């Protein structure tokens, strides 16, 4: 079939089953946008900033488990998108980003809106392509989707010169492909799995360390079965919240800088650490030399380059986690003696009992943790929760009752303020039946506030709960703890009227300074059926605890802080 480049893109998106794309037009993608105008296969959501388009595609991908798609123009359109691309890259989220480029003949001439897009995207994508001729476009599109979703997922960027979007060529879209240079290992080595099973059988203080890979490989069920079978307790990274249901007796909580005492002590005292799709991020490990220093390490990951990168693995297993866990289960299902772990388990229960997660809810001021708990009570585990970055993100991670995959959406690796709201919009498009709540801060929400227009124009209803402390709270906390309370440029007392702002954009706005007002505002927001901003005045000086100071060992936590 003969098509022009833009038609090929549209047909490829159709063939890949894409239902929603997010984007922002410009000169270099005019031909493509003309084709988007004519087609009826999928919906295009016009965001108001390219960064938001990519975050929305990312939120869509995380909520649906499918590849998210964003389209941006050349030059500033592309550079605006970079933060979104890097955010997805660090968290291994499958995206295809299509950018326009100046006409092939103009590349390298400093043409209007020219930028070396593939040069910029190389370090923050799983792979990228500059399309050099129309003949290679169909295969590149196919490969982009394949690379984005297979193995360790990630964003793939395709930069397409404007003339190629108008040129005509042959379009035979392959239904399947294999690539010589890229073949992810899916099945873990049976010998290694056998050895790992033996190590689990022999250990007396084992702990599972679940990372984002549990979610990405859709391995929640398999992880739960293995935990149930073995009675081995589990800690979750920020990205793995929901692996076990909140309240599960095998769950020790979140591990790392703001992890629970029990989780951090479990890792510190374990004799075997079973890392599941986790990458040993420094926010998790604390001081590396002290991290799990008594433990042998089993590391299961689909990405071979992540194994041994930060921490040597005694039992490396390269493969898809879901499959590897199934194989491990088969190895262990005969006679695993759970009782062997009873001393270990009671020691850990004791840790959980002496330092439970908690906060002081005495005074009149609204505590942010209380807000998170109330939303959790109202919506439970069926809601989709997104966050921005800061204290509110950690409180949401600590106090929301998670249960299962694809419902907890946060920028873990890059820590991108401005992520939460557009990601929530993308998530709502992917899961229209779910209530979507974005926990955000008064700093973060202003970073992509323009997307209120996108929400209103497209009737996408999400609830932004602004935990408003009039500070860049997380940075203020560090200044308080580690810089002698020198509050340098983190006071956000000067702020807009968030209620009026919401209304100006056609959204719902309400303010809450007392607990009853919050519950009322929250219910009214849901009833409004619109995107909402709830401006919640919280205790200004609340800190996120426990906290492991940077470079400290996990077992040295600040549990309580009094100035
Ligand atoms: C784009 C970006 N800029 C700067 C930072 C550094 N940073 C991390 S947390 C934070 C404060 C966030 O403040 P706010 O959104 O009000 O949330 P709070 O911590 O008060 O809950 C800042 C500035 C970041 N993570 N992302």
Q: Which labels suit this protein?
A:
6-stranded parallel β-sheet; 563 residues; binds thiamine diphosphate; alpha/beta
Tell me what you see in this structure.
The protein is built from 20 helices and 20 strands. The protein is of the alpha/beta class and about 575 residues long. Strand 2, helix 2 (about 30-40) and strand 3 form a beta-alpha-beta unit. It starts with a strand and ends in a 26-residue tail after the last strand. The structure holds thiamine diphosphate. Thiamine diphosphate binds near residues 390, 442 and 472.
Largest sheet: 6 strands, parallel
Structural class: alpha/beta
- Give the integer mean of the pLDDT values: 97
In spatial order, strands of the major sheet run: 3-2-4-5-7-6
- What is the first-to-last residue Cα distance? 72 Å
* Rg of Cα set: 24 Å
SS summary, helix count: 20
Task: Please mark out the parts with pLDDT under 50 across 5 or more consecutive residues, or reply none.
Answer: none
């Amino acid at each position: 079939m003969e098509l022009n480049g833009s038609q090929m893109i549209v047909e490829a998106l159709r063939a890949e089953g894409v239902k929603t794309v997010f984007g922002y037009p410009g000169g270099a993608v005019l031909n493509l946008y003309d084709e988007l105008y004519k087609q009826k296969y999928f919906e295009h959501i016009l965001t108001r900033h390219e960064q938001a388009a990519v975050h929305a595609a990312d939120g869509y991908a995380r909520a649906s488990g499918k590849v998210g798609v964003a389209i941006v123009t050349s030059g500033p359109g592309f550079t605006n998108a970079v933060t979104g691309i890097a955010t997805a890259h660090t968290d291994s989220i499958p995206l295809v980003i299509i950018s326009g480029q100046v006409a092939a003949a103009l590349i390298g001439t400093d043409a209007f809106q020219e930028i070396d897009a593939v040069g910029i995207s190389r370090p923050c994508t799983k792979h990228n392509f500059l399309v050099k001729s129309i003949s290679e476009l169909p295969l590149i599109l196919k490969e982009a989707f394949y690379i984005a979703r297979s193995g360790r997922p990630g964003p793939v960027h395709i930069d397409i010169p404007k003339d190629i979007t108008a040129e005509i060529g042959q379009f035979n879209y392959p239904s399947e492909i294999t690539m010589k240079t890229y073949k992810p290992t899916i099945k873990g080595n049976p010998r290694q799995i056998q050895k790992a099973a033996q190590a689990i059988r022999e250990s007396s203080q084992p702990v599972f360390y679940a990372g984002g890979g549990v979610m990405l490989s859709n391995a929640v069920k398999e992880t739960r079965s293995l935990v149930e079978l073995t009675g081995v307790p589990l800690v979750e990274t920020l990205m793995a919240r929901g692996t076990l249901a909140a309240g599960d007796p095998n769950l020790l909580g979140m591990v790392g800088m703001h992890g629970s005492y029990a989780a951090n002590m479990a890792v510190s005292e374990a004799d075997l650490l079973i890392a599941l799709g986790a990458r040993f991020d420094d926010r998790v490990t604390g001081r590396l030399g002290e991290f799990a220093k008594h433990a042998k390490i089993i590391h299961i990951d689909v990405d071979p380059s992540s194994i041994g990168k930060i921490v040597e693995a005694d039992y490396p297993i390269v493969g898809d986690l879901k499959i590897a866990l199934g194989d491990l289960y088969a190895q262990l299902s005969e006679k695993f003696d759970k009782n062997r772990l009873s001393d270990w388990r009671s020691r850990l229960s004791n840790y959980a009992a002496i330092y439970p997660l908690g906060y002081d809810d005495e005074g009149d001021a609204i505590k942010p943790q209380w807000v998170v708990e109330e939303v959790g009570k109202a919506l439970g585990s069926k809601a989709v929760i997104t966050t921005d970055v800061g204290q509110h993100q950690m409180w949401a991670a600590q106090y929301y009752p998670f249960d299962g995959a694809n419902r907890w959406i946060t920028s873990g690796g890059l820590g991108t303020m401005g992520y939460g709201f557009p990601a929530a919009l993308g998530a709502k498009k992917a899961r229209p039946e779910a209530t979507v709540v974005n926990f955000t801060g008064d700093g973060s929400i202003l970073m992509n506030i323009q997307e209120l227009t996108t929400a209103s124009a497209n009737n996408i209803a999400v609830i932004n709960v602004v935990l408003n402390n009039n500070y860049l709270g997380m940075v203020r906390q560090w200044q308080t703890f580690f810089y002698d309370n020198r509050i340098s440029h983190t006071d956000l007392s000067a702020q807009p009227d968030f209620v009026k702002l919401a209304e100006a954009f056609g959204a719902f706005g309400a303010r809450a300074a007392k607990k009853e007002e919050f519950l009322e505002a929250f219910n009214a927001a849901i009833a409004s059926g619109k995107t909402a901003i709830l401006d919640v005045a919280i205790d200004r000086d609340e800190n996120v605890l426990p906290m492991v100071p940077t470079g400290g060992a996990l077992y040295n936590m600040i549990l309580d802080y009094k100035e």
